[in-house]
Amino acid sequence: MILRTEGLAKTFEVGFRRRRVQAVRDLTLSVQEGEIFGFVGPNGAGKTTTIKMLMGLIFPSGGRAFIFDAPIPSTASKARIGYLPENPAYYEFLTGREALRFFARLARVPGADAKRRCDELLELVGLTPAADRQIRKYSKGMQQRLGIAQALVADPAFVILDEPMSGLDPIGRKEVRDLILELKRRGKTVFFSTHILPDVESLCDRVGIIMRGQLRDVGRLGELLSPRVKTVELSAMVPEGARGALARGRVLAEEGERVSVAFDDEASADGAVRAVLAAGGRLVALTPHRETLEDFFMRRLQEGEARPEATPRRLAAP
Ligand SMILES: Nc1ncnc2c1ncn2[C@@H]1O[C@H](COP(=O)(O)OP(=O)(O)OP(=O)(O)O)[C@@H](O)[C@H]1O
Q1: Topology (CATH level 3) of domain 229-293
Q2: Which UniProt keywords apply (predicted)?
Q3: Is the CB of 102 inside a 6 Å radius of any atom of ligand 1?
């Protein structure tokens, strides 16, 4: 077990009247060695607050957490963690290479290794051609990639990335996804937060879903998502007089003889396929749709809204 939290909680006191906001409540989860764990939640759910607690940047109001079996904050375990903050800030007059060398010095990477390590990381994150350009001339995506290189500079065993894909275009997101997979291949454990659901589906071994400060679900996606087929989409070339075969479905598109229809159950779709073929039609595609992470997320969000105890608790000032 690389990370373990037990009932971790954080309450902020806000404003003149010290209104108390429970940003994270009773968070219990664990991350195992070698896995990619996605910490997923909408804006304001408590992801950054959790990560800041893990990194020792803010102190928990309650509960405990252990990284490499050491209670947080632990200087010894921090030396083995790479961290990308949500909004990395740099000395922008430095070049990417200079900044990375600076971070390597801060992380006490021995001088002899530092140059080689920095060159390797610049290559890994695709910044070699821009390495000698000032950071203020970097795009958001390049700054994000430099942030990831910075997180890896001490060759950490555990990497915590706060919203690594935020603000990136689809190509940049794909590059960061590939990078995270590469980290896994190199034996690292990765914990990253995000609200971009397709990224989670393509990357994570396990996910934790946090909403309004509470961990709502944790597990493998295959365990969380319903295996039930939600709809079956049938596309077929159907002669004009044989459209009755599709009568039980919802028409999605129609162009000449080509018709796409959705069925809510597999039996109806099977029946329609047989009827289309019997009528001399031709099947083009039959696609079952199961619950996606987005469907699951929206379902849990709606369930949470229906449950008063899951609404954010804003405690009155004492
Ligand atoms: N320093 C702070 N003082 C007061 N409230 C805070 C503070 N930091 C965070 N909060 C509140 O705690 C809650 C959780 O915020 P947090 O930044 O952890 O969410 P998040 O899931 O990271 O969201 P985002 O995806 O928007 O970054 C929010 O209601 C936020 O307003």
Answers
A1: Alpha-Beta Plaits (3.30.70)
A2: ATP-binding, Nucleotide-binding, Transport
A3: no
Burial (0-12, 13-18, 19+ Cβ within 10 Å), 36? buried
- Ligand 1 centroid to Cα of residue 45, in Å, is 7
Can you list the alpha helix ranges (DSSP code H) found in 249-306?
266-278, 293-306
Question: What confidence score (pLDDT) does residue 311 get?
Answer: 42
Residues 194-216: tens digit of each pLDDT: 988 888 888 999 999 999 999 99
Ligand 1 in contact with 22 (CB < 6 A)?
no
Quote the tokens at residue 286. 């039959």
- Residue 48 Cβ < 6 Å to ligand 1: yes
* Residue bearing the CA closest to ligand 1, atom 25: 43
Residue having the nearest C-alpha atom to atom 9 of ligand 1: 49
Does the C-beta of 10 come closer than 6 Å to ligand 1?
Answer: no
CA distances from 18 to 14, 44, 78, 303, 317 (A): 5, 19, 32, 30, 6
The percentage of the chain sitting over the pLDDT mark of 90, rounded to a whole number, equals 50
Pairing status of strand 206-211 against strand 250-255:
unpaired
- How many CB atoms sit inside 10 A of residue 152's CB? 24
**Prediction pTM value:** 0.84
- Residue 299: both structure tokens together: 């379902």
The closest-lying atom of ligand 1 relative to the alpha carbon of residue 195 is 25
pLDDT at 135 over 90: yes
Per-residue pLDDT band for 267 (boundaries 50, 70, 90) equals confident
| Ligand 1 mean position, distance from CA 24 (Å) | 9
**What are the residue ranges spanned by the domains of the chain?**
3-220, 229-293
Our answer on whether the CB atom of 23 is closer than 6 Å to any ligand 1 atom is yes
